[in-house]
Amino acid sequence: MKTTKPSPDAARQPHTTGGEGGQTRRSFLDRLGLGTLLTAIAGQTWMMVRALVPNVLYEPSLRFKVGTPDRFPEGVTFLEDRRLFIFRNQKMFYAISGVCTHLGCTVKMIQLNQPQKVEIRGKLTEERWEFHCPCHGSKFYAEGTPYAGPAPTPLAWYRLEVAADDGQLIVNLMEPVNQDFRLTV
Amino acid sequence: MAAEKTIWKKLIWTWKPESEFEAGDSIVRNLLLHWFPSKITFRSLSYRYSFWLGTASAILFGILTVTGVVLMFLYVPSVERAYASIKDIEFAVAFGWFLRGLHRIGAHLMVAVVFLHAVRVFLTGGYKNGVAANQNRPLNWIIGVVLLLSTLLLSFTGYLLPWDQLAFWAITVGTNIALAAPVVGEQTRFLLLGGNTIAQGALIRFYVLHCVFLPMLVLLLFAWHMWRIRKDGGLACADQLALDQKQEKAPPIKSKTYSLLGIAGTRTVHVEAALVDEDRHATPASPSLTLRLLVVILATVLLASLMTIVVEAPLEEPANPAVTSNPAKAPWYFLWLQELVADTTVRVGGLTLNGALVGGIIVPGILVGLLLVWPYLDRSSVRSAGIWFGSDRWRQNIVFLIIVLAILILTIVGTYMRGPYWGLYWPWETWPDLPRKF
C-alpha cells in the first residue's frame, strides 16, 4: 500500500472553478468571508444606533385639560408647566404659546404703562402688553406677531376646546390655529 | 544603601541620562518617552515659537480627566438629583468645591488654549509641509480642527450636567439650533434629546457623551495628532533649519551605511539620519524636552489651581422651564455665537431665514469648512512653513486675524454689553430693575 501525501504546495495552488474571469474558490471564499463580516458589522451598528431612538415616549400629552373656564380670571393666566398664556375676555378664550419661535426660550409678558396703538398686518389695534424674549431679544405684539429681534414667525396659537364630560378647557398643542381664533363658552 | 541607590538609578535613569548614549537609549526604553524623538531642535523647544500651547491643552485635558473621574463618583445624572448632587459637591464634600472649580476652570482654559493653539499654528503656517519626505501636515491640521470642535462640544455637554438654569436654557437653545438644520433638523434634535422634551432622556445622553464618547474621541485624535507630528518630522519650524542648511551649502549630514544590506541589494544603502545638523541645532529629548515639559506642566497646573481658588464657580438656580433667566447668557466662549444667532435673521421679501440657521449653522459651518480646506488652498512657498507671519502669507494672515478679531469683538459685546432682553448697554450702564416673573 502506498499512500500519496498531498504536496505542501497543493493548498497554495489556485483551484479554478472553470472560466469566470480567473475567480478561484479561495478568492470567492475570501470575499464571502469579508462581505459577511462587513455586513454583520454594519447590521449591528445599525441595531445599536436604532436602540437609541426611543419607541415609547413617556412625555406629557399634547392635548390636555387645564381646568374649568371659571378658574381663569379676566385677563391672562400663565400655565407655567406648559409655557402657555391663556387669555380670557369675558366669555371668550384663546391660548398663545410662551415659546419663542427663534430658539425656544420662554418669553416674558411685558405690561405696557399705557395702551399703545400699533399697526399689525395693515390693521390698527390697541395693545396693552407685549412679549419679549430674554435670550436673543425678540419682541412680539400682544397677539404674537414679531416686530423686532431674530424671531422669524409669530408665537403659536393653539386650539381650545371644552371637554364634553366635565366642561373643562382643553388645550390641543397638535392643532395650531390662526390669530382670529376665539373659544366662546 | 548601595542597593537602594541602584534601584533608584534604575527607576530614573531614563529621565536623567548621563551620556549621549543613555539619552538616546532612554527614548527607546521608556514607555512614556518613546513618543518623543531622540533629539529635538532648539527651535522646536523655544517658548517663543509655539508658546507650548498644544502641550498645555494636553495637560489641561489630563487635569480634566483626573478631576472628572473623581466627580463621576459624586455626581448623579438624574433630573431629580443632579442639581442637589452638584450642590453637595460644592458645599458638603471635602474639597468638592476645589474639584468642581478645577474641572470648570480647566475646561475654560482648555477652550482658550486650544483656540490660541489653532491661531498660533495658522499664523506660523505650521500646517504646511516642509522638505522631509512623507509629510502630511494638512491632515494633522484637520485632526486639530476636529479636536477644537470636540473641545467645544465637551464643554457644552459639561455645563449642562448641573441641571441649573444655565444648563436647561443651553440645551434648549443648542438643540433648537440643531432643529433649524434643513431636512435632518427634526431627527437630530429628537436623537439628541431622546424625545421631544428636555428631560431625563436628554440629561443621560449628554452625560454619556461628556464622560465617555467625547473624551475617548479626543484621546484617539490626540494620539493620532502626536503620531502625525512625529511622522511629519516634528514642528514645521525644524524644516526651516534644513532649508537654511541647504543654502549654507553645509557639508552633508553624517549618514548611516548599512553595508550588509548594501551587499544584499548590490548597492550601498545610505539612510539619512536627520535633515538638520543635530550637533549644531539639536539636543537629546531626555532631559531637555522632558525638563521643559515638566516646567509647562508645573505652570499649567499652578495657573489652573490658583484660578480655581480665585474664581468662583457659579451654580445658577435649579432648571425652571417656565422662567428663562434675563438675560440668559451662554458661557463666554459661545457668546459670539449667541450674538450671531441674535443678529442674523434675514428677511427678504416674504422669505424669512431664521437666525438659528444663518448664525447657528451656516456661518459657523462656513468657518469650519474654510478651516478644513485652507491648507489645500494655501499656495505660499515652503519658506513660510513654521515662520511667524511668513512674508508671502501676509494677506491670509490678515484675513484670518480679522475673523479672529470679529469673533473676539462679538464675544466682548455679548459678555459686557448685553443686558435684559439682550438689549445693548454700555458696561458702565446699570440695567433696569425688572420683575422676575412674567
Structure write-up:
Chain A is elongated. Chain A folds into two domains: 13-51, no CATH class; 63-184, Rieske [2Fe-2S] iron-sulphur domain (Rieske Iron-sulfur Protein), CATH 2.102.10.10. Chain A has one helix and eleven strands; from the N terminus they run αβββββββββββ. In chain A, 15% of the residues lie in helices and 36% in strands. Chain A is α+β, with helices and mostly antiparallel strands and 185 residues long. Chain A has one helix at 25-51; strands at 63-67, 75-79, 84-89, 92-97, 108-120, 123-132, 139-140, 146-148, 157-162, 169-177, 183-184. In chain A, β7 and β8 (146-148) form a beta hairpin. In chain A, the strands form two sheets. In chain A, strands 1, 2, 3, 4, 9, 10 and 11 form a seven-stranded antiparallel sheet that branches. A four-stranded antiparallel sheet of chain A has the order 5-6-7-8, with no helix packed on it. Chain B has 438 residues and is mainly alpha-helical. Chain B has a domain at 35-322: Up-down Bundle (Cytochrome Bc1 Complex, Chain C), CATH 1.20.810.10. Chain B has 18 helices and six strands. Chain B has helices at residues 2-12, 20-29, 42-45, 47-50, 53-74, 82-91, 96-123, 137-159, 165-179, 185-193, 200-231, 237-248, 259-264, 278-281, 285-310, 335-343, 355-377, 394-416, and strands at 39-41, 255-258, 269-272, 282-284, 346-348, 351-353. In chain B, the strands form three sheets. Chain B has a two-stranded antiparallel sheet with strand order 1-4. The longest helix of chain B is centred in the middle third of the chain and has 32 residues, at 200-231. The relative contact order of chain B is 0.13. At the A-B interface, loops of A face α9, α16 and α17 of B.
